[in-house]
Design goal:
three-stranded mixed beta sheet; 236 residues; binds zinc ion; mainly alpha
Amino acid sequence: MLNLKQDLELLYELQNYDLKIDEIKKKISQTPYLIKEKMRALEDKKTEVSVQKQSFIELNCLKKEKEAVLDSKDKAISKRSMELNTVKANDIYKILLLEIERAKADKNAIEDEILDLMDKIDGESIVVKSGDTELKEFEQKIKNEMNDLEEYAKKLKEEIISIVKEREIQKLKINKAVLVNYERLREGRDGREISLIDGTSCEVCGMVLRPQLINMAQKYQELVFCDNCSRILFKK
Ligand SMILES: [Zn+2]
């Protein structure tokens, strides 16, 4: 085969385009996962903020319940106090007084609980407000990062288009019989399909080559393949 050395040289350059395309495709294929990760992080943040809000709502509900009980205690105290004015029997008078005392004690305890709840609600309200602000900022950050990733993927796709164009030009320079062998090998797998002879070994798989193979490769009369990895061998 005439000019096989030159064809192999051109093929080796073509492979550089293919390796570059493989590398860019790999980067593009990673971007949806990276975008998904960003979306997941945002969802986690939203859940975190909503849990904080839920706790704030629950504390407020609890405070309302306590206030209702407090109100009922107040009403009971006034009712019993009114009864005190009309009751004549000493025993009942004593019972009413005791009930009023108990209700007042309950009231004090409930008031303390309400004050305690109000402190907690104040604290939670700060957490909820800062959580909302944080979420807004986080949302914007994630949106920007996702836009950047999409922009990055778009640029990579454009890069591939331009490399493919250059590759097509390079392809035309190569003898078809040589090219067909290379393309067929690449169909089955990505990566290098033309391997340099590095001293006495195949550069890609590292196998020490038979002297006869090296000899044949140096004659550039036919394509020579590695016994181990089947790649096209090229002695520069
Ligand atoms: Zn090999």
